[in-house]
């Protein structure tokens, strides 16, 4: 397939509710959508999961725009590409910038699936017809608000509840949640808010039967996580520390993690996500699909990836209505009783809603030979 045209949309959408983590609070989501068109007029869509500011990792909307426009598009525009797996290799000379790479690669995967009359799930080798989904809740003002939010999501049937913790908002909060919901699958995401000095606090979490503690320590660490895992009963799940198959291999060999949160953007795309999935399956490390508050385009990619067999834990891909008054796809992603039915249309399986997209597009960039 020949990529003949690439369009980038700078988007700004207001989320239904502010999202707070140990880094800060935001409600407006500014991000990039990217559309590729081939020589036959087929199109594919990708979404950059980089935030407007570098609080989750070093990438931002603007660094992604720069990398995509100035380095990645020249490598793929008007180039013959037989399979999206080639993109990983094409982009290898460019260091890091994984979210930028994943934006372009994801759009080409969508295009490839459509050209070959496959769903993206089928193109990736996934077979699940529905996926279990959990819900991730940002830090709330107080425990009572958090408990009421959790009560609502449990009633909606979400298969796992993920809450944020940070020093001073941890043991008491988890205890209150466990008292209120003795049996709900419950996990905590610390987003690197702790150090090994906090080991006694983290060990107290062992008594609450959490399914995992996500990224308790530094975002670039696997050494201290290995030391911590030896002291904890609760499985550690790594998110920010894992950027590639090599990172996953080293973390598993060191015993730094027992579960991996795969985020397509963080690891550089669907091909690398699949490699990490396969390696973890060979090593009995379950994986789940993390979220980055995506619009429907990125959400659709997450659904397709989650159909692979080792995605045995509910991920963070909730329905569109959790985040958006209106999503940029039709139909929207819908979770019913904690399940999302995998679409059967070709490619990502959802149609871009251009009318809605146009309303939330701040700026566009067009590239063609
Ligand atoms: O997309 C979702 O609903 C989950 C979002 C989410 O939990 C996260 C997104 C980005 C950084 C963190 O706050 C957290 C995570 O680390 O998984
Ligand atoms: Mg996380």
From TrEMBL:
Matching InterPro entries? Enolase-like_C_sf, Enolase-like_N, Enolase_C-like, Mandelate_racemase_C, Mandelate_racemase_N_dom, MenC, OSBS/NAAAR
Domain of life of the source: Bacteria
What are the record keywords, sorted? Lyase, Magnesium, Menaquinone biosynthesis, Metal-binding
Top-level EC class as recorded in UniProt: lyase
- What does the record list as GO biological process? menaquinone biosynthetic process
Under Pfam families, the record lists: MR_MLE_C (PF13378), MR_MLE_N (PF02746)
Identify the catalytic residues: 164 (proton donor), 263 (proton acceptor)
GO MF, one annotated term: O-succinylbenzoate synthase activity
Q: Where does Mg(2+) bind?
A: 189, 214, 239
Alphabetized Gene3D superfamilies for the sequence: Enolase-like C-terminal domain, Enolase-like, N-terminal domain
Show the catalytic activity.
Answer: (1R,6R)-6-hydroxy-2-succinyl-cyclohexa-2,4-diene-1-carboxylate = 2-succinylbenzoate + H2O
- Which cofactors does it use? a divalent metal cation
Q: Which PANTHER family does this one have?
A: O-SUCCINYLBENZOATE SYNTHASE (PTHR48073:SF5), O-SUCCINYLBENZOATE SYNTHASE-RELATED (PTHR48073)
Name the chain's protein. o-succinylbenzoate synthase
């Amino acid at each position: 397939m020949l990529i003949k045209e690439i369009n980038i949309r700078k988007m700004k959408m207001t989320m239904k509710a502010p999202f707070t983590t140990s880094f800060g609070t935001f409600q407006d989501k500014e991000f990039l959508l990217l559309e590729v068109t081939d020589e036959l007029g087929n199109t594919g869509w990708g979404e950059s999961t980089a935030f407007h500011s570098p609080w989750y990792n070093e990438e931002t909307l603007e660094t992604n725009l720069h990398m995509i426009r100035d380095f990645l598009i020249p490598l793929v525009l008007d180039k013959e590409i037989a399979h999206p797996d080639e993109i990983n290799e094409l982009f290898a000379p460019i260091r890091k910038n994984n979210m930028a790479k994943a934006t372009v690669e994801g759009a080409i995967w969508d295009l490839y699936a459509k050209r070959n009359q496959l769903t993206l799930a089928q193109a990736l080798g996934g077979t699940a017809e529905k996926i279990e989904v959990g819900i991730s809740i940002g830090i709330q003002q107080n425990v009572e608000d958090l408990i009421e939010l959790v009560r609502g999501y449990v009633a909606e049937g979400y298969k796992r509840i993920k809450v944020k913790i940070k020093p001073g908002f941890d043991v008491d909060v988890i205890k209150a949640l466990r008292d209120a919901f003795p049996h709900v699958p419950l996990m905590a995401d610390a987003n690197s808010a702790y150090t090994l000095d906090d080991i006694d606090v983290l060990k107290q979490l062992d008594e609450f039967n959490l399914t995992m503690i996500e990224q308790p320590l530094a975002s670039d660490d696997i050494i201290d996580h290995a030391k911590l895992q030896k002291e904890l009963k609760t499985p550690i799940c790594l998110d920010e520390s894992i950027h590639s198959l090599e990172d996953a291999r080293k973390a598993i060999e060191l015993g730094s993690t027992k579960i991996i949160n795969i985020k397509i953007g963080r690891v550089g795309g669907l091909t690398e996500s699949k490699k990490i999935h396969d390696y973890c399956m060979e090593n009995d490390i379950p994986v789940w699909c993390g979220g980055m508050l995506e619009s429907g385009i990125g959400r659709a990619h997450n659904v397709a990836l989650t159909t692979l067999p080792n995605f045995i834990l509910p991920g963070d891909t909730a329905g569109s209505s959790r985040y958006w008054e209106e999503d940029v796809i039709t139909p929207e992603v819908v979770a019913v009783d904690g399940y999302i039915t995998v679409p059967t249309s070709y490619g990502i399986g959802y149609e871009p809603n251009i009318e809605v997209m146009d309303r939330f597009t701040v700026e566009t960039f067009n590239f063609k030979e």
